[in-house]
Structure formats: structure tokens, C-alpha cells
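Subject: Predicted fold for Kinesin-like protein kif1b, 335 residues

User T.R. writes:
Posting the sequence so we have a shared reference for the thread.
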Amino acid sequence: LIRYLVSGYVNGKVLDTLSEHANALASSAVASLEDEADQLSHFPFLSSLNDPVFTVPKHHVPATKLNTITKSNLGQCVSKYDLLVWFEISELEPTGEYIPAIVDHSAGMPCHGTYLLHQGIQRRITVTLIHEKGSELHWKDVRELVVGRIRNKAEVDDSAADAVLSLNIISAKNIKSSHNTNRTFYRFEAVWDSSLHNSLLLNRVTPYGEKIYMTLSAYLELDHCIQPAIITKDVCMVFYSRDAKISPPRSLRNLFGSGYSKTPDCNRVTGIYELSLCKMSDSGSPGMQRRRRKVLDTSVAYVRGEENLAGWRPRGDSLILEHQWELEKLEQLHE
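User M.O. replies:
I've generated the C-alpha cells; pasting them so everyone works from the same file.
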């Protein structure tokens, strides 16, 4: 693809370098995704697909306002939906408006990006869910948006599990789209004060070459669902000084135009999930356990002590059927 697109703009040596770099990046990405494929977390209502792009972080941030969520016994799957989720971090501008921060997509990995943030500025986190319209899927409310596990490496360890903060949800609503009426757009926004984490990684300018990682978990309530859906995303950030002028790094996209970095699509990180709506299994009720209990056929099997019954053998289910028939006959006589 690189050779086809830029063959008329650069010479052969630079072209070979770009092709080798892209090939090496793709190979390392596939290898890392295959290594982590068997370690992905699975939730009752939110599971990941086998496609490498459909990835779920290994550890979600536990909710602080909800009861402990346990994996329920799921029955038949009613329907499945593909969710496209946009994550944006907005910063307060001198005009008083919150503008989405620039995201560095130079790594080229799908569903990844690095937020370029300013130190000491008020921020908001905006999450937008997009999916095909369906009769079973209706978002009712956002129960909680939790952020935590602040760290300076991509892996999650127990040392980063204490810095958990529940954000204040200021708006949650469905958005009407004039471009696509067959899809549902559900957006909610929360205030994020990074100083409340009391983390040195968030309260300083990020050193050169270092990145800050944080895990975000949203608990959303759906109609006719007893447990909320959990959407979890690992975000990568770099903090600059308050007055720094930030511009996105140049990439191959800039060879074909200078307007790409100004489009709103580049100022967000994308996540792709699969939402499964399943019926609850009623195997836990005493009646269902009794009906599913294995019945011993004593007309054939030996029961200890039956020799004392002098040859008497138990009857089968015909006894119950005859009893029901007798009750119906008495009811008819009574009428």
C-alpha cells in the first residue's frame, strides 16, 4: 500500500525504508496481540471478540457505588450488538469552552492513541456509544464512571489498584444524528480532576520518553438487565506544561494534506466491543433444581431393604396420571 501511494513522491531508498518500517510494526503488533489473546478479561454482558482489534483491558476498575458484581448464570443469548465507543478528554480553553485534547495516532495501532494534555487545567471525559438500533438495547442510565490504576507502564500490577476515583456525571443523553438515522448515539460526560488522585504521575510534566497510563471503566444500566454493562479502556497520556503549544506529530497522512490533524476524528480514541444480551438462567430456584434432579427408577434398580416388602414393587408415573384422572372425574360429577 505504501509503495502504491507514495511511489511518485519519494525516491526508491526512502520507499524501501518506509515499507520495512511498516512491515516490522505490523509483525510486532500481531505478535503482541497473539500473546495477550488468551489473557483477555470477560464480563457477563461485555465480552471481547477473537479479532485482534476487539481487545478488552485485562483489569477493569471496580465500581465504588455499586454492589459487588458477580458473574451470573447466563442462559440463552437473545441478541448481540457491536459497539463503537469514542473516548475524548476535553480541556478548558481561555474562551470558557471545553475543547477535545489532541491525540497522537502516530503509532498506527487501531483503537490506540496518546492524549497530549496540559498540566493544571480543568478536564472532562466524554464517552460516546454508537451501535445499530435494536428493540432490545436501550440505555437507561450511567451508574458510574470510574478511573484509576495510574501507572507509567502498560502492564497493570497491584500497586496501581489503590488510586481509584469515581467521576461526577454531568450529562447523559441520546444524540440525534442527521447523517445516519439507523444508528443510536448515546453520549455521557463527566468531570475529571486529576489532582484528586494524589498521584505524582498526574501532577507533574511527563519526562521525555515516558507515558502515563490509566484505566477507565464505565458501568451503564440497560432496560430489562439486572446487571450493568461494563466498558473498560486503557488510555495513554503525556502531560506538558500549562502554556505549551502542542501540535500532533507528522505522519504519512500529512503527505497528502495538512487538514487531517484539524479534523475532530483525530482527537479521540476508539474502542470496539461486543455486547451480548442473555437470559438469566433460573437453575438456582428450588423448583427448577427439583425438576432437574436425576430421578432413580426404583422399578428396575435395587433399593436396600426391598426384600422386606414381600415382592411389592413401586408403580411408575401411571399412579400420578390415574390420580389426576380421578380428580377430573370428581370435578365433572360435582359440576
